[in-house]
Amino acid sequence: MNILAIADEECPALWDYYSPGSLNKYDLIISSGDLDAAYLSFLATMAKCPVMYVHGNHDEDYATNPPEGCECIDGKLVTFQGVRILGLGGCIEYTGGTHQFTQKQMRKRIRKLRWQLHKARGVDIVVAHAAPQGVGDADDFVHRGFSAFLKLIEKYHPRYLLHGHVHLRYGINIKREQEYLGTKVINVCGQYTLDYPVD
Hints:
Elements: E1 2-7, E2 28-31, H1 37-46, E3 51-53, E4 71-72, E5 77-80, E6 83-88, E7 91-92, E8 100-101, H2 103-112, H3 114-120, E9 125-128, H4 147-156, E10 160-163, E11 177-180, E12 183-187, E13 190-195
Parallel strand pairs: 1-2, 2-3, 3-4, 6-9, 7-8, 9-10, 10-12
Antiparallel strand pairs: 1-13, 5-6, 11-12
Helix pairs in contact: 2-4
């Protein structure tokens, strides 16, 4: 399965300089948040595949202007072509925004999904906005990751965790890919193509 993962920064090649048919190779488009709703709507219109998204900390306007033709999977476990995908948007609480959570609140969000995870026998891809704490996050408080994501990985061992929030241009030492207990943690800021093996 060919997945286009996006976050944080709209890609000019996919929007301003879009070439007809350039999205045809994708089976699924996933947004990890903080993207213009019009951008997601454009991709949903031009692509021949579903567009799924979670909220970033700057996506409060989605409440009144949601991306058209897209599916919000924030706080949900969905299955697409046999692949179990869990959406956990938002970042660490720093100003009390709609999509900001304390460490405790994120743990509670994940606990609410335990029955769904049990019924599905786990999860293959976690789509988040923030990174796991210590694995892909940053030193400043706003971009600190969630410790609950580490526990989620330890228990369910997803193949991938996709996140944004930490822009790659923030520093030369920011890694695109890392690994934690066998789970590949990928910063999909801008765009990232994931070739997911489907049995």
